[in-house]
User: Fold these one by one.
Assistant:
Number 1:
Amino acid sequence: MKYYGGCDVGSTYTKAVIIDENGKIVADTTLKSKINAEESAKLAMAEVLKQVGLEKSEDLEYLIGTGYGRNKVPFADENISEISCHAMGVHVTNPTVKAIIDIGGQDIKGISIDTDGTVKNFAMNDKCAAGTGRFYEAMARSFEMSLPEFSKLSLSAKNVIPITAQCTVFAESEVITLVGEGKPMNEIAAGIQMAVAKRCFVMSKKAGATDSITLTGGCAKNDGLKAAIEHVLKLKVVDLDTDPQLMGALGAAEYARQKGQAKK
């Protein structure tokens, strides 16, 4: 059996996937990124190689690096942008999905997928961290909660307390003030989720979403955000069978499979 790898070095998490010659995932891992992107890539690949009984990255037929630190994957045969890799990852997971909102650690992307898994169109907001993974980490910290706890908090809210600040720093200050005033925490959380959903609106339009969309990245696991996006965007959020945080690494591995087999 021949194996192909994808390594997605993100700003907050590094993901690695190994697939076999049929495209089936045989190993995967998600690790907190180190300051040094190359070290992150080495740790993630060491983990997935161990899972399939391989000693080194060179034992793979082909390996592609992607993500924020894609140029720092020392053993990659080449690198491909995370936009392309997320599109391909979603395509091989569920080919009926044609639009993605990818909420990463530092940016939000809207991606339209063509029939072959390539990118049809995309838009990106990387000017402000509001609405990204780092934003949610700051919000959870304000509530003195873990991210999984915070992601479900808004689901029990009967009302929404609007969050007006667009900047992560000012939003965190606004939230701390509201919590200090004794406002219902689930209603504040609902306001946060609605604010992020509204930021996703333009991205979804650029991605060409008409009736449904899927979320990728770690924030795709945020139940409160999914509910808010469905409410604001009037779109069905399609859940993926594979961990949405792995889509970039999976897409990279699939590109590696295609390129590796084309070399024959």
Number 2:
Amino acid sequence: MRPGFVPALGTPLDKDGNLVEKSLRKHVGDQIAAGAVGLLCLGSMGIEAFIRDDVYPSVALTALDEAAGRVPVFIGAMDTSLARVKKRIAPLEDSDAAGFVFTAPFYSPATREQMMNFFKGCAALTDHKILLYDLPVVTQSKITPAMVLELIKTVPNFIGIKSADLVMFRNLKRNPDVPEDFITVYSGLDSFDVAYRSGIDNCLDGMLSCTPKNTSRMFKALEKKDYGTAAKCLDNITSLRDCFIKNDLMPSFTHSMNLLGYEGDFAQDYMSPITEKAKENVKLEMIRIGEIKG
């Protein structure tokens, strides 16, 4: 995958939990127009773990159809068991997805052996490529460099990992057993400009999906080695994220997406509606960082 940003797309749903297809298509098209080099559909920000089983394939297939091969589309398939993963990905086996993305099984911590059994089992369920998402804050289980190296050697369709572990990436990039085309996508948003200067040139995060102007500007600046401008853009993106956190993360994300012109609810269905004060706070921050006009 060429250097650049890979937004974790939001998933717009109506009040009954069904996909708002028009909204997702616009979202995909706008991200590609902004310069995205790939897309993650149904990641954490895309509330993959929370949507209905019957809605899941329609989200993935809509994103793939709208992307139409312009950029690779990776599909999140995180779950708690191999049986549930199989049910998720089976309808997509004939699709042109660039790969399925898996975290460690969540809900309860897993041992190293259990994690390896899970990852190898996931890989055996599909002819597609697979990538891992190192997300210990959610899964309670940390993927290590040694695990990655073992999977590279034993799982032919294992092609990459997303992680905020810069030390892991440093070790992998220096290891001769790691293929040159092995994908390392950085999810440590706060330090991405520093990571970029050390050779980590792909960033994947949900905040990129609601900050296309700042994200595009940041990567253009990085390509020109204008690190001051890049840092300011990254500060804008993380500032908006911090605003979301202060005002209830996912409802705030929904409001930001609505302000950008994407219909639907992007939050879990048990979330409380965003308050009017929080709406105003999010809007003002979106205006301040230049994502929308005042």
Number 3:
Amino acid sequence: MRKFFRRNTAGYVFLTPWLIGFFFLALGPILVSLYLSFTRYDMVSAPVWDGLGNYQYMFEYDRRFWKALEVTFTFVAFSVPLRLAAALGVAMLLDKGLRTIGLYRAIFYLPSLLGASIAIALLWREMFGLNGVINQVLSMVGITGKGWITDPDTSIYTIVVLAMWQFGSPMLIFLAGLRGIPRDLYEAAEIDGTSRFRQFRRITLPMLAPVIFFNLVLQTIEAFKTFTSAFIISNGTGAPADSLLFYTVYLFNEAFKFFRMGYASALAWVLLLIIAAFTALAFATSKYWVHYENERD
């Protein structure tokens, strides 16, 4: 044990601020929310124990709960692959050794800093409105647009486009991973006459698999937690026709609009379990496609 702690002392020192914050600031509210999930609590009167009542109502009777799951799963299924594809594509372009790469890196990362802000969500709502910039551009080529935000069939995809636009963070991680791939692998492939596409499939993707896995897990978790853009664009209601009823928006309304804090706590724990399940699935399947340099057959 003494040897173990001596070898890992630096790691525990760096973890100390997080551990202090977790045990003294986060653990208490987490346990309280778990307790409240089994109660009927309106933030005014004392909690009343209800056992599994919240969970039973959620799965058996609450249609909006299932709608929120449908909307959120749709968003995750489209936004995560598109964001990762955009991030990888731009990272490969920046990996060409551009002289002003620092400037380009900052420009492409900027949307990630602004994307979760209220101002950008409001701007996005105006852009995809009936008289927005998008329809004005389409009218120049003879296409009659519509209210992309107000149409239940297309509203979710405007949020997907916004999420794809915020590819700065995974892009930087991909760029760092690309810089770690030995150049001599590409040189040997070019000598053998291997095409660029085959180099990408046989060298880039396998060598980048750990980074892809890391970005996939992080971006999936972030997609499930999406709130600001959906809340602002839908005016906090999930409109139109609940097509923007993200799980987090529904949870927020149950807690702070209808003051059903006990039910909202149950919703929060279900979301935690869903994210944990997707993360566990990603780790379970990673052994089939993620390989590390230090692995031995």
Number 4:
Amino acid sequence: MPIAQRDDLRLHYELTRGGASESGLPVLLVMGLGVSATGWWRTVPVLAADRPVIAFDNRGVGRSDRPTGPYSTLEMADDAIAVLDAAGFERAHVYGISLGGMIAQEIALRHPRRVAGLVLGATIPGGERSVMPDESTLNFFRRRAEMPAFEAVWASVPYSYGEATRREHAQRIADDLEQRLRYPVEPEPYTAQLAASLGHDAGDRLGEISAPTLVVHGDADGLVPAANAQVIADAIPGARLELWPGASHLYPTDEPEADRSVARFLAEVEATAGSPAA
């Protein structure tokens, strides 16, 4: 089991190689609130067709250590760099979703030379620039820590998936939840990660991001309103914005084309920059 060590903290990660067709720079995947690396199960095979893919369990979830919280996106960004070091890569693309997108912003700001391309999915800029969900949605996610894991993931479905997926593709949701329940999050680290999300504030610094950036969001996201995507794209020089119609917070499940679009973006970044070297 691959482990990255950062001081006394151990972080589990998985490295998926692209096989004979592998030609691109690696991509580091940073998952969201309360979800282990298994949450990337749909995305990994799409991106690994052309490049190494590194997915890891953030502090507090999955097979990684669970230090006492609260956590911050700053320290979680440094965790991610420790994973990249352990996997043996100097430079990589970074793709974060939700809380992972907040962490990815800090990676790009704190470690700009390590980031070739940046993908920010279903996330917020933090601070006063963030567009927050309604109070009932915020209250649900505060209460979620008190629910048993099985109940919590099912109760989150209306907040996570678009209407069409809930109506026509229930098996997609069941498959996702099976993966999430392999390593259910515990209440204390969930609350510690939630503190990182609520304390994130990169809004006034996003203009300092130099990596080519793709901002991705579902336009029906009620958990993280899609207006945040426009705020982020406007703040990062040259950022590209993609909104997926009818998709909600977990847009890769609602719209499978989204990850294929991410793969094309990463290839374009490399083509523009010249031949990559891992």
